[in-house]
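--- STAGE predict ---
source: upstream dedup step, 1 unique chain passed
mode: sequence only
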Amino acid sequence: MARDLKNKAVVITGGAVGIGLEIADRYLQKGAKVVVLLDIAEAQGLEAAKNLSTKHGANKAVFIKCDVTRDLDTVSTKILDTYKTVDVLVNNAGILNDQLSKKTIDINVQALIDWSMKFWEHMRTDKGGKGGTIINLASIYGYRVDQFLPIYQASKFAVMGFTKSLGHIYNYNRSGIRVVAICPGFTETKLTADPKTWDDDSIAKDFAAFVKKQAWQKVDAVGKAAVEVFEKANSGTAWLIEGAKPIVEV
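--- STAGE serialize ---
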């Protein structure tokens, strides 16, 4: 499969702001045919699509309001009816709130799996598809552990396990679909502006002190990494982007 974004149709969940929006911009810079932004934030999503189309060309970006936990069938049908072929799915939608355990698993794990499998079936070459790439946004917490975010960490460990299994060379060889993960470190986004720990009353002070010591980066570092990962990563691999340093396989 060509590791070139030119003329690719890209779907990005959680695409209205932050990392998702940055990836959309970077992929359009690399020649993507269209990016479809999915998000529950309608006003921000419409504005994002408008700005991207102004920057990159008419209809280069479109927005569809979408709750990834409920709207898979209707939204995916709309996308495939419109564009016929989707080449890249970026599972970026996520939540960082350990006080909402079920919602964390529903969004970070179950929805990511459901969207992956839907587009896996669409892309698979052994069933008439054209192949493609699925990129899952995991986290440094997909393979590292600390004491502050056990539920979020569990969700990202699940993403890593799913990615490496579905992306296994056996599955890639029969389907023509790459499945890879990006593991951002601490990144300045709406998601990390006010993270909720599982035991805020007792550990909030310690967590705040811990967070200040981390190697923070801006979303542009993750967007740049998302291009590099697309262009070089083999299926079933995961890549760290931390402190805006060069990407490293993990």
